[in-house]
Specification:
With about 90 residues, this protein is α+β, with helices and mostly antiparallel strands. It contains four helices and two strands, in the order E-H-H-H-H-E. Strands 1-2 form a two-stranded parallel sheet. The two termini are about 30 Å apart.
Length: about 90
């Protein structure tokens, strides 16, 4: 059965707003796709730092703890990156 968003606040947010991806983006812009691919591979096991919208999303999701059986907030993460390289497809 598909997920239902009836009665919920649905927030769509970009991966670059949720996480601090400035360094990887700098590598992509300055050194190109191959360097970016290598950077992604070298850092794939490192936890991403929070981005500018991280605190907001955390607070919105915190509203779900008020009624755990009936969550009212859904967050959808948007990204134009491919799963393997993180490059825009």
């Amino acid at each position: 059965m598909p997920a239902s968003f009836d009665g919920k606040l649905v927030v769509a947010i970009s991966s670059r707003a949720l996480f601090d991806l400035e360094e990887s983006n700098r590598v992509f812009e300055e050194r190109g796709v191959e360097a970016y691919y290598q950077y992604q591979r070298e850092h794939e096991n490192q936890m991403l730092a929070p981005g500018i919208a991280f605190a907001l999303v955390k607070k919105l999701l915190g509203l779900n703890t008020l009624a755990p059986a009936r969550p009212r907030v859904e967050v959808i993460l948007l990204s134009r990156n491919t799963a393997d390289t993180g490059c825009a497809s």
